[in-house]
Amino acid sequence: QKEVEQNSGPLSVPEGAIASLNCTYSDRGSQSFFWYRQYSGKSPELIMFIYSNGDKEDGRFTAQLNKASQYVSLLIRDSQPSDSATYLCATNSGNTPLVFGKGTRLSVIA
Amino acid sequence: DVKVTQSSRYLVKRTGEKVFLECVQDMDHENMFWYRQDPGLGLRLIYFSYDVKMKEKGDIPEGYSVSREKKERFSLILESASTNQTSMYLCASSLGTTNEQFFGPGTRLTVL
C-alpha cells in the first residue's frame, strides 16, 4: 500500500515567518511530487510540482525533494494570513493515480 | 486554463434515491477521477478512467458506479444513496497519469 504521511497540524506561524510543511512517502518508485493548497470549503488547487532532487522555487514557495530520504517539503516565506489553509502532498509512480496525504493545516497568525 | 466543472455545488437527496454527479473538463484530458473527502480521512479515490468507456476501481468503489461515454464527461452514480455517502465529492482530470490533477469545485452531497 503506497502511503503519503503528513502531520495534520495545525501548524501555527506568525505573519512574516517561514512555514515549513513536510511529507514522507513510502513508494521508492515515486517520480512526481505535488503540493496542493485547499481553503476551507473549497477544492484543492495546485501550488507546485517537483520531479528532481533538490529545490524548486516559485515566488514565496520552495519545494524541496530528497528521494534518498523519501521526503518532500514545502517552504512558504513571508507567510501571510491568506496562506492559512490545508496543504496536501501527493505523489505517484508509473501509471498510477496520485496518492494524497491527509494534509497539514497551516494557520498564519497576524 | 484547465476548467473542470461539476453539475451541482450542493445537493440534498433522500435515502434510497439514485444520484447522478456529473463532471466536465474542457482541456481534452485523458484521465478523470472521482474522490470523496471527509474530515480526518483525506481524499479517497472512488473510481478513475484513463479513456472513454474505461473505468478502474479506486480505494472505495462500493456503492458507486461511473460512466464515461465521452472524453470530456465523467459521471458518478450512487445507485441507492445512503446516509454514509454524505460527503464532499471532488472530480479531477489530468493529461497523463504522471501529470498534476486539476480539481472541480466539488459537490457537497447530503443524504437524509
- Class from helix and strand fractions of chain A: mainly beta
Distance between the termini of chain A: 40 Å
Largest pleated sheet of chain A: 6 strands, mixed
The main β sheet of chain B shows up as: 7 strands, mixed
**Helicity of chain A, as a percent range:** under 10%
Low-confidence stretches of chain B: none
Percent helix of chain B: under 10%
**Tell me, what's the shape of chain B?**
globular
Account of the 3D structure:
The complex is a heterodimer of chains A (110) and B (112). Chain A is an all-beta fold and 110 residues long. Chain A has no helices and eleven strands. In chain A, the strands form two sheets. In chain A, strands 2, 4, 5, 9, 10 and 11 form a six-stranded mixed sheet that branches. Chain A has a five-stranded antiparallel sheet with strand order 1-3-8-7-6, with no helix packed on it. The radius of gyration of chain A is 13 Å and the shape is globular. With 112 residues, chain B is mainly β. Chain B has strands at residues 4-6, 10-13, 19-25, 31-38, 42-49, 56-57, 64-70, 73-78, 87-94, 102-103, 107-111. In chain B, the strands form two sheets. In chain B, strands 2, 4, 5, 6, 9, 10 and 11 form a seven-stranded mixed sheet that branches. In chain B, strands 1-3-8-7 form a four-stranded antiparallel sheet, with no helix packed on it. The interface between A and B is medium-sized, with 21 and 20 residues.
